[in-house]
Q: What sequence folds into this?
């Protein structure tokens, strides 16, 4: 007898064969003026500016000029449209204005989605920034904590950099804890306060946490799951941006990003793991 597929497996295979293809089909001629223009020009123009771990510039002089999930996604868009991928260098000041001035078709230099930016551009979200709470693994208070919520106690001291990105969030997130403000040392987090036991925990962005963990042994993190890479603490969406009022173009870009999500996540994890 020939082996047969279970009904569930057959359904999954059919969904992959047909649903995935449909999700990535570009709008037909006339549906999106932007896509029509891209096809006519034969190129997809993307604004680029390094922002790890999503977009990394290759300065070695060999191989592809860029890497990271933002680059993978841009390459997929160009492939599906049958055009070449052209990069346009941008700065922090110009990466949004170049969209309205039609100098690029999208900015793939990763941008955090904010209410202010949403007034002038639309986003294709494929990742997020967030915060981890770390401390010494041999600290009983941290060891007993099952979640970040468990750090919001009067007997826990939390260190943070004065004027740092996490200062306001720490004060709001941990109203019951003892807060210890320290001057920034240029480090990514107040590690010295933790190692000297002057504080039990401190915040750090989830991306540099991986590198810090490799450099400084004996640290632990919350949330514990997936080494905090899925943290929702102080989360902020990250993605690429296009000029507003392009609904067909935007819908298609988002469909492709959803279809590529697992691949983009895997590449982001690869980049973060290689960061020192």
A:
């Amino acid at each position: 007898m020939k082996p047969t597929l279970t009904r569930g497996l057959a359904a999954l295979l059919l969904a992959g064969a047909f649903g995935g293809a449909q999700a990535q089909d570009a709008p037909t001629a006339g549906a999106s003026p932007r896509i029509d223009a891209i096809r006519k020009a034969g190129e997809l123009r993307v604004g680029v500016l390094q922002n790890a771990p999503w977009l990394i510039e290759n300065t070695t002089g060999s191989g592809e000029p860029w890497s990271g999930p933002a680059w993978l996604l841009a390459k997929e868009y160009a492939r599906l449209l049958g055009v070449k991928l052209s990069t346009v260098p941008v700065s922090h000041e110009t990466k949004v204005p170049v969209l309205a001035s039609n100098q690029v078709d999208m900015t793939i230099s990763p941008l955090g989605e904010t209410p202010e930016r949403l007034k002038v551009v639309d986003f294709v979200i494929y990742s997020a920034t967030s915060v981890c709470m770390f401390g010494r693994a041999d600290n009983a208070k941290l060891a007993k904590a099952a979640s970040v919520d468990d750090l919001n106690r009067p007997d826990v001291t939390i260190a943070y950099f004065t004027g740092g990105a996490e200062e306001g969030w720490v004060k709001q997130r941990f109203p019951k804890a003892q807060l210890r403000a320290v001057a920034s040392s240029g480090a990514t987090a107040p590690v010295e306060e933790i190692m000297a036991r002057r504080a039990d925990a401190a915040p750090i962005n989830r991306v540099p946490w991986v590198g810090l963990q490799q450099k400084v042994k004996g640290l632990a993190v919350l949330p514990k799951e997936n080494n905090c890479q899925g943290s929702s603490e102080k989360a902020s969406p990250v993605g690429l941006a296009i000029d507003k009022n392009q609904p067909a173009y935007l819908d298609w870009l988002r469909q492709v990003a959803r279809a590529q999500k697992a691949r983009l996540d895997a590449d982001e994890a690869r980049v973060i793991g290689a960061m020192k």
User: Anything to note?
Assistant: DSSP finds eleven helices and twelve strands in the chain. The mean pLDDT is 91.
